[in-house]
Amino acid sequence: MSILSPSPTLSVYTKNPRVSVSLTPASLSSSSFQNRSILRRFPCLTFSRAPNAAAETFEDKKCCSASRPVSGSEFGYSHTSIDATDQDLLFGIQREVEAGRLPKSIAQAMEELYQNYKTAVLQSGNPHAEDIVLSNMRVAFERMFLDVKEPFEFLPYHEAILEPFNYYMFGQDYIRPLINFRESYVGNVSLFSAMEEQLKQGENVILISNHQSEADPAVIALLLETTNPYISENIIYVAGDRVITDPLCKPFSMGRNLLCVYSKKHMNDVPELADMKRRANTRSLKEMALLLRGGSKIIWIAPSGGRDRPDPVTNQWFPAPFDATSLDNMRRLVDHAGVVGHIYPLAILCHDIMPPPPQVEKEIGEKRLISFHGTGISVAPEINFRTATASCGSPEEAKEAYSQALYDSVCDQYNVLQSAINGKKGFEASTSSISLSQTLQSL
What we know:
single chain; 443 residues; alpha/beta; 9 strands
């Protein structure tokens, strides 16, 4: 069953009660209480309004509109007050700095994020863009302020937090206005339905993917939320430490199922912490092994160890090469789980909405550029290890061959998405093995 779109056919194998959270009046009341508590701690977030303006409550909005509420209202937050402006919100950040409750560096990053997010959402042409920006950024800032005051610590395996505040829906609604759904595509959507059947049978599914932006989990979930909501809500992402330590990232990460690891690219950034990072990765691998033994798990992993970057000469984007050893370790965990496992190659194209810095950075707190753009994901049939490596003469050769087979498939799919979205070919970019479709949101 789904938060977004109830699906009776999925209820028979929904083992995790987290996905059955309903936005009942009781849960909204709980979330509203937490909101009031936050506003008491962070008074800068209480906007002023004209003296004669009527208060606008969640119930008022629910009665007045038959459409889906603007982001934030389903959590118990009322819409931003009638006369609230971006200057009110930005002034509030400065008040927190002056009061000593917010580090200046984080405040500057929040202000920059606000301006970039606003510019991107306005690009969409949505007549309600100003309201969406204020609503989403107010909720985002509340969550960021809360974490600065009471930092959340992620366990090696983190389950999405859905109550009393629904961090999953918060992340969905924040990224949703950045996606041009009319120019977004899903390749081979029927395979995602096949995956759901495999999960229903207690089998595991592994998605071997490229990695483009911090928004990857939301993009995947949004493009599948109308066709495959169970996958959207239950994917477990193998995530690097940066998204669970950066104060601007943490609230979004709290809404995803994560296996937290330290990337090889950052293992030796601080040499004296390298041993600690290796031990932490070992704990996460043990957690992953336990999850796979339980069956019915879908796990996303990017064997490149980081986000794709454009070619420094041509400025063309392309999936970063896979690390064959990391991929082979994942395959072995699947094979040794005692449960049937399926490994699929998945391509994602979404770098335009939130591109990474041109080079890998050691410091936490990167500059976040944001844009409104089309996105895409595509999956190809699973690739069997024995079939792909039948002609190999050694385990090392087989490891490299399997990694290359998966990588080649991801690249082929990426090229189709690139042609459809950036090449403006749309459905005509489909091939005999990659059939493109669009979500209902784009129609």
